[in-house]
Amino acid sequence: MKVAVLDIKGKETGRKVELSKEVFGIEPSEHAIYLDVKQYLAHQRQGNHKAKERGEIAGSTRKIKKQKGTGTARAGSIKSPVFRGGGRIFGPRVRDYQQKLNKNVKRLARKSALTIKSNEKAITVVEDFSFEAPKTKDFKAILSSLGIESKKSLIVLGDANNNVYLSSRNLERSEVITSSELNTYKIVNANNVVFTESALEGIESNFKK
């Protein structure tokens, strides 16, 4: 599949690039996409939630009232979960949410996500660009020229460019990453994926392995 290369004003440069069938034209696996997105979201969780249980509460262990004759339920330590200030029953504990996923499944998931975007005509290729200084106004002008200003977009650069990144940081619907940071969740989460020429070359060489 050939895609026209655009400039930052949204006009065709007269050049076209061939999207590799091995990356953008495979039989997509929705289950692989599900597993990779699930792992990514799990890794975003810090897992540092904690509530004290009755054994961790500071307080007296004296029996607070006699066993019988009070007309109410028997009670032992003031640290019991049934009392205010007592420990919590089955409260959250610190844990690690990380999951393991085979690298071949991750590669399949990313190629599947790119294939789906390609089938939806949601992939754009632009020539490499840079800014002399961070300017959100200039970055918004590029999005407007490409017709994706109002859509959730993912801009993939070949190499890190601090000025371009800073120019996009205030825009809620747009995100700038490098080709090495590309993952299944970011692809699926975007309405449109914009690749620079250098980023496209790097992704195809990495994903063909």
Automatic annotation (TrEMBL):
Stretches for region Disordered: 48-77
Keyword tags: Ribonucleoprotein, Ribosomal protein, RNA-binding, rRNA-binding
Protein name: Large ribosomal subunit protein uL4
Similarity remark: Belongs to the universal ribosomal protein uL4 family.
Function summary: One of the primary rRNA binding proteins, this protein initially binds near the 5'-end of the 23S rRNA. It is important during the early stages of 50S assembly. It makes multiple contacts with different domains of the 23S rRNA in the assembled 50S subunit and ribosome.
Pfam families xrefs: Ribosomal_L4
Protein's UniProt keywords contain Ribosomal protein: yes
Subunit structure, as described in the record: Part of the 50S ribosomal subunit.
Gene Ontology cellular-component annotations: ribosome
Organism of derivation: Flagellimonas spongiicola
Keyword Ribonucleoprotein in record: yes
InterPro entries: Ribosomal_uL4, Ribosomal_uL4-like, Ribosomal_uL4_dom_sf
